[in-house]
């Protein structure tokens, strides 16, 4: 996680400048939240919302635009510096706290109505049981967790001519080490901190972790589209969702979970 943090520290200002995050569009009023996220969470006005692994804060601030009282948490100081600047530029009230996910329950003194995370967050965490227990400790009784995640099945596959092949195991327990000079959002910018580690967490592991933490899973959904262009062959539909061409078949690219802490 320390190696990953150095990568995120370097990537944060590059992401602010990237077309992927489209900061100018956000400042003009474009929301970075997916419609499925807004629909699942429901009204947030005047509710306290905690965003774990908030990075540069665009999703956090998009919830603030909908009326939530937001707190963003991330372990990267440069990312939080960017988030605070964006909050000021957008004239949105928000609090940002530097902490890793596992330490957040000790760093935050209050409980929240909603905990939100997702869109590529879980692959950076080695232990989902600790993650889920921490979330349960941050939710007020009756509070809800929502996340929409990249599907781990898609992490297992890599494109080849004419289709896909398995590049690693779905039930792999060890981290995967990558050395890549770019991130998903940067093109042309070369990272000095090019090494990173990711973990594949089967969907069953995430659901089991939530139940083990005492949370009740209310909704679970899988999707045949992605929020980003994972593979070069993908095309955007009318709603801006990225889909595989029919000739390459269909498999789950995202999933979402809505869970509740019992009252």
Radius of gyration: 18 Å
Instruction: Bin the helical content.
Output: 25-40%
SS elements, strand count: 14
CATH topology descriptor: Rossmann fold
The largest pleated sheet is described as: 7 strands, mixed
Strand line-up in the sheet with most strands: 3-2-1-4-5-14-10
Beta-strand percentage?
A: 25-35%
Domain count: 1
Q: Which stretches are low in confidence, meaning pLDDT under 50 for 5 or more residues running?
A: none
- Name given to the CATH architecture: 3-Layer(aba) Sandwich
| Mean pLDDT rating | 95
Keywords:
alpha/beta, Rossmann fold, 30% helix, 263 residues, 7-stranded mixed beta sheet, 3-stranded antiparallel beta sheet
Provide a brief overview of the structure.
This protein has 263 residues and is α/β, with parallel strands linked by helices.
Plain-language structure description:
With 263 residues, the chain is an alpha/beta fold. It has a single domain (2-260), classed as Rossmann fold (3-Layer(aba) Sandwich), CATH 3.40.50. The protein has helices at 2-16, 23-27, 35-41, 58-65, 77-90, 104-107, 128-138, 152-156, 203-212; strands at residues 48-52, 69-74, 95-98, 112-118, 139-150, 157-160, 163-166, 176-179, 195-198, 216-223, 225-226, 235-236, 242-243, 254-260. 35% of the residues are buried.
């Amino acid at each position: 996680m320390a190696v990953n943090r150095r990568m995120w520290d370097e990537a944060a200002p590059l992401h602010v400048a990237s077309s992927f995050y489209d900061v100018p569009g956000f400042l003009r009023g474009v929301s970075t939240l997916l419609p499925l996220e807004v629909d699942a969470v429901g009204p947030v006005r005047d509710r306290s919302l905690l965003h774990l692994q908030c990075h540069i804060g665009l999703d956090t601030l998009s919830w603030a635009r909908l009326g939530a009282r937001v707190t963003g948490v991330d372990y990267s100081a440069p990312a939080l510096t960017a988030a605070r600047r964006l909050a000021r530029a957008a004239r949105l009230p928000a609090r940002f706290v530097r902490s890793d996910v596992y330490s957040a329950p000790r760093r935050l003194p209050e409980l929240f109505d909603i905990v939100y995370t997702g869109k590529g967050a879980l692959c950076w965490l080695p232990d989902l049981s600790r993650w889920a227990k921490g979330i349960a400790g941050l939710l007020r009784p009756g509070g809800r967790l929502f996340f929409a995640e990249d599907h781990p099945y898609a992490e297992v596959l890599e494109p080849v001519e004419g289709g896909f092949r398995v590049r690693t195991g779905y039930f792999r327990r060890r981290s995967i080490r990558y050395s890549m000079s770019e991130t998903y959002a940067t093109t042309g910018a070369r990272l000095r901190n090019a090494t990173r580690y990711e973990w594949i967490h089967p969907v069953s592991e995430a659901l089991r972790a939530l139940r083990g933490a005492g949370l009740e899973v209310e909704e679970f959904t899988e999707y045949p589209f992605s929020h980003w262009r994972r593979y070069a062959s993908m095309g955007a539909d009318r709603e801006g969702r990225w889909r595989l061409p029919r000739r390459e078949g269909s498999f789950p690219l995202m999933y979402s979970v809505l869970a509740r802490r019992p009252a």
